[in-house]
Structure formats: C-alpha cells, structure tokens
Amino acid sequence: QVQLVESGGGLAQAGGSLRLSCAASTRAFSSYGLAWFRQAPGKEREFVAVISGGGSATKYQDSVKGRFTISRDNTNNTMYLQMNNLKPEDTAVYYCAAAPASWGLDYIMESRRYDYWGQGTQVTVSS
C-alpha cells in the first residue's frame, strides 16, 4: 500500500513558476515509478511526466517539454515537479501516482495503470 500526498499548488501568473511535491509513505519508494497527471475542468485526466524508480529516466508530455522537470529524492520519499514558464492552459488539478517501476516507463504513461493516487493539488495560472 502506498499513500501519496501532493503539495505546492497555488496561483501563478503566466510565465511564472511553481514546484509541486509528492510525499509517499512506503518503505519501497524506489521500487515505484512515479508520475504526474493533471485534469482540467471538463477534460479527461492527462499524462504530464513520469520518472523511473532510480530517477535516471523520464518522459514528458510534448506540451510541457522544456518547461517542466520531474525529479525524485529516494532518500526522503518525495517526488517533485518543477514547472517553469507556466501558461494558462497548465491550469488543472495535478495528481501524483505510483506504479511498479518494473513495468517500464512506456507502460505506466497511461493513467489506467495506476492503483495509487494522491488527492490532487490545484494549479491556477492567470494570463
């Protein structure tokens, strides 16, 4: 069982930055691949970024490449999403999720692969 708690959301202006955190309660943190998804009002939940168990491999949605950076600290059981050059279209509730790292990054880019989710944190970007 993995419990995930996001923090760091809030209001930012276009062009600004925010850093989201996802704290996990598990003794096997590095055995999980971790991802960020987001859901805007009236839209389906979409993939944002994913990181391997050791942190050496990452993948991003095309719209956030070069602006967002996913990282993790396996010593402190925490994952991060650094969001720079924010745009109004980044406005959404952001969720972190965990799945077995052995499944591979490509496999866990789909939200249906995940059993463990955080409660979400709101990110609002004003123009």
- What fraction of residues sit in β-strands? over 45%
Distance between the termini: 40 Å
- Spell out the helices and strands N to C: EEEEEEEEEEE
Number of helices: 0
What is the total tally of β strands? 11
Q: Main beta sheet: strand number and arrangement?
A: 7 strands, mixed
Radius of gyration: 13 Å
Low-confidence stretches: none
- Category by helix and strand content: mainly beta
Mean pLDDT: 96
What percent of residues adopt helix (DSSP H or I)? under 10%
Shape: globular
Question: How would you concisely characterize the structure shown here?
Answer:
This protein has 127 residues and is mainly beta.
Describe the structure in your own words.
It is a single chain. The chain has 127 residues and is an all-beta fold. The protein is built from no helices and eleven strands. Strands 2, 4, 5, 6, 9, 10 and 11 form a seven-stranded mixed β-sheet that branches. The chain starts with a strand and ends with a strand.
Features:
single chain, 127 residues, mainly beta, 7-stranded mixed beta sheet, 11 strands, 0% helix
How is the secondary structure organized here?
Blueprint (H helix, E strand, L loop, with lengths): L2 E5 L2 E4 L4 E8 L6 E8 L6 E6 L6 E3 L7 E6 L4 E6 L8 E9 L15 E2 L3 E6 L1
Parallel strand pairs: 2-11
Antiparallel strand pairs: 1-3, 3-8, 4-5, 4-9, 5-6, 7-8, 9-10, 9-11
